[in-house]
Design brief:
It contains 16 helices and 13 strands. By secondary structure, it is α/β, with parallel strands linked by helices. The strands form 2 sheets. It has a 7-stranded parallel β-sheet, sandwiched between helices. The structure holds uridine-diphosphate-N-acetylglucosamine and uridine-5'-diphosphate.
Length: 383
């Protein structure tokens, strides 16, 4: 019996690790599967745990309001010391590029426990963009014994860093496994669709507004390197767009980070409840978010995970960042980098709304990130 410990702490890690937890649980004779959450995110993590019905074996519960990188690193590192001593895993699996994943990998290394890195090999080679994620994933990659690379390009990145080929397995990204699970769930239950629609309404967006061909721009933003001026410029651009296109709806489920909310209030005012075609709502549960993404026409985001999901649903994505570690969809033509520049955001969103031909050229469904079988491949490798 092999002891596997999966460690994660933020919303995107939870979404991408949940199907992997489920896959390991299919082999109770072979794997003793344990889950440790750090609670780097609290509410946004719990939303995902509830949806996938995962009860963690360990919960470090580290989140503090307005935490900084030192808080998260120190609390995860010391918290993991005791968890690892208790669980004594044969392998620790961490995900991607968060501070939870890097600190948990380091904690495992200090007890000489092999680490498997899920979503390994993504690179921008600019350590300040995204920050601190680019350095986080490079450090985690350096510690890892097993590299589960989502695409051939991420494998190439690792080979260039002299990672030996036998440590790397190209698996696809587990986010596509999660996305397919959720899309299937929605498709197979009319009852569920009704629940989602009423959940959305409670959150402040009535999807029936989209009858008669009304367009929807879905927006998210949270990157640390965009805090301050970058966010102000993004919000100003969004405000201009809402005025320029009163017939289009703009929906922004806001991240809970106070640094994200401050500039929104600065530009749109204290009361965000009656802004006509602009809807600021609380973070959505993953099912509702995927449903809304499916209904949207354009996605404007700085998120990593959404860059992977939206192209699979055939949605053009404008990425409010200067670099991306996910160039595959860029090459396929469904994703475009617009940075945080006011003029560029206004110009690119307008072009997608106004120019049908341009819109069609960016809205073909492509799936360079996976086929929904990434978790199966990861588990088979460890089998
Ligand atoms: C973190 C990750 C980032 C990832 C993002 C996904 C790091 C350094 N950053 O950034 O890589 O892309 O998550 O969303 O690992 N908060 C809550 N409740 C929640 C979640 C957050 O109140 O459920 C608030 C808290 O005030 C918290 C703050 O947001 O202190 C920041 O959270 P933190 O995880 O440090 O940073 P994120 O910007 O969420
Ligand atoms: N997401 C969600 N609810 C929301 C916004 C996003 O469930 O209100 C999902 C989204 O589908 C994707 C993930 O959260 O799977 C992305 O998380 P985030 O943008 O916070 O982090 P990143 O991917 O940039 O690390």
């Amino acid at each position: 019996m092999k002891k596997i410990l999966l460690v994660f702490g933020t919303r995107p890690e939870a979404i991408k690790m949940a199907p992997l937890v489920k896959e390991f649980q299919k082999y109770p004779e072979t794997f003793d599967t344990k889950v440790c959450v750090t609670g780097q995110h609290r509410q946004m993590l719990d939303q995902v745990l509830d949806l996938f019905e995962i009860t963690p074996d360990y919960d470090l519960n580290i989140m503090k309001q307005g935490q900084d990188l030192y808080d998260v690193t120190a609390r995860v590192l010391t918290g993991m010391r005791d968890v690892l001593r208790d669980a004594k895993p044969d392998v620790v699996l961490v995900h991607g590029d968060t501070t939870t994943s890097t600190a948990a990998a380091l904690a495992s290394f200090y007890q000489q426990i092999p680490v498997g890195h899920v979503e390994a090999g993504l690179r921008t080679q600019n350590i300040y963009s995204p920050w601190p994620e680019e350095m986080n994933r490079q450090i985690t990659g350096r510690i890892a014994e097993y590299d589960f690379a989502p695409t051939p390009l991420s494998r190439e990145n690792l080979l260039k860093e002299n990672v030996s080929a036998d440590k790397i397995r190209v698996t696809g990204n587990t986010v596509i496994d999660a996305l397919y699970m959720v899309v299937d769930k929605i498709k197979n239950s009319i009852l569920l669709e009704g629940t989602i629609i009423s959940e959305l309404k409670k959150s402040g967006y009535d999807i029936s507004r989209l009858r008669n061909g009304k367009k929807l721009v879905l927006i998210t933003g949270h990157r640390r390197e965009n805090f301050g001026e970058g966010f102000i410029s993004m919000c100003n651009a969004i405000k201009t767009l809402t005025e320029q296109y009163p017939e289009v709806d703009f929906v922004y489920p806001m991240h809970l980070n106070p640094n994200v909310r401050k500039p929104i209030h600065e530009v749109f005012g204290e009361d965000l409840s009656n802004l006509g075609n602009m809807f600021f709502i609380e973070p959505l549960e993953y099912l509702s978010f995927v449903y809304l993404m499916e209904k949207s026409n354009i996605v404007l985001t700085d998120s990593g995970g959404i860059q992977e999901e939206a192209p699979g649903l055939g949605k053009p994505v404008l990425v409010m960042r200067d670099t991306t570690e996910r160039p595959e969809a860029l090459e396929a033509g469904t994703v475009k980098l617009v940075g945080t520049d006011y003029d560029k955001i206004v110009k690119e969103v307008s072009a997608l709304i106004d120019n049908r031909e341009y819109y069609d050229s960016m809205s073909k469904a492509v799936n360079p990130y996976g086929d929904g079988k990434a978790c199966e491949r990861i588990v088979k490798t460890l089998l």
